[in-house]
Specification:
Helix content is 47%, strand content 12%. With 234 residues, it is an alpha/beta fold.
Length: 234
């Protein structure tokens, strides 16, 4: 593994105090819509609506944006869209693209005595199906994912992180979230836990730095190396 574009000092400082490592799912663990593209999923969700959609929703490639809009239509529509999105996420699991070095991250975290959880805006059926399919379940202590058709509970809300902290009986100062979305960084701040931004696309590093991520990495290899270099805090 090689370390790429990492602020090693900032990353090392965060890892030194991290005992509870929370990973976002879509990004740090895999690209869930690698084989079933997100724009295709968004288009499928739009078929559930009978009324004309605003231009931004009619053209968005992001299924989550369609879900957010559904909640402004009605509670029933939000439930229908969430259920369809959950089914499509499960259908996408066989063609999801694994994130390089994720296995090394989990192995390094476990070897150093850290506890790993997953915190995801995706549904738990898809998350658990992917983890099982790729032999990752044994390395994950807890999965906290979308179980409601209320999009207000998704990141950037701290709700899911707070649930993970409670479920793991974690200490806030010793908890870190790794995510590839700006909403991950915002949610971590709101939950008072540290954040590591995974800048897996051009332009993300700058925005994550502006959002005051504790550290920014461009490869999960960076995280694996940092975990391997440091023993878990007491």
């Amino acid at each position: 593994m090689t370390s790429l574009g990492t602020d090693a000092a900032a990353l090392g400082a965060i890892i030194a105090r991290t005992r509870y490592l929370l990973l976002d799912f879509d990004g740090p663990i895999c690209s869930i819509f690698g084989g079933l593209p997100a724009p295709t999923v968004a288009a499928q969700l739009r078929k559930l609506f009978t009324s004309p959609l605003p231009d931004e929703i009619a053209n968005t490639p992001d299924p989550i944006e369609v879900f957010y809009y559904s909640a402004t239509v009605s509670d029933e529509m939000a439930a229908r869209v969430e259920a369809e999105m959950a089914d499509l996420e499960v259908a996408a699991v066989p063609t999801a693209e694994p994130t390089p070095y994720l296995h090394e991250v989990i192995a390094s975290a476990r070897e150093s005595g850290r506890i790993i959880g997953v915190v995801s805006n995706n549904g738990p059926r898809a998350v658990n199906a992917y983890l099982d399919r790729h032999g990752l379940s044994d390395g994950i202590t807890l999965v906290v994912a979308r179980t409601s058709h209320d999009p207000a509970l998704l990141k950037p809300s701290p709700y899911l992180i707070n649930e993970a902290v409670r479920g793991l009986e974690a200490i806030l100062v010793a908890t870190t979230l790794v995510g590839d979305s700006f909403t991950d960084i915002e949610a971590a701040h709101s939950a008072n836990v540290a954040s590591i931004g995974y800048a897996n696309k051009s332009g993300k590093r700058e925005r994550m730095t502006q959002l005051q991520a504790g550290a920014v990495i461009t490869s999960m290899a960076d995280l694996a190396l940092a975990l391997r270099a440091q023993q878990s805090p007491d």
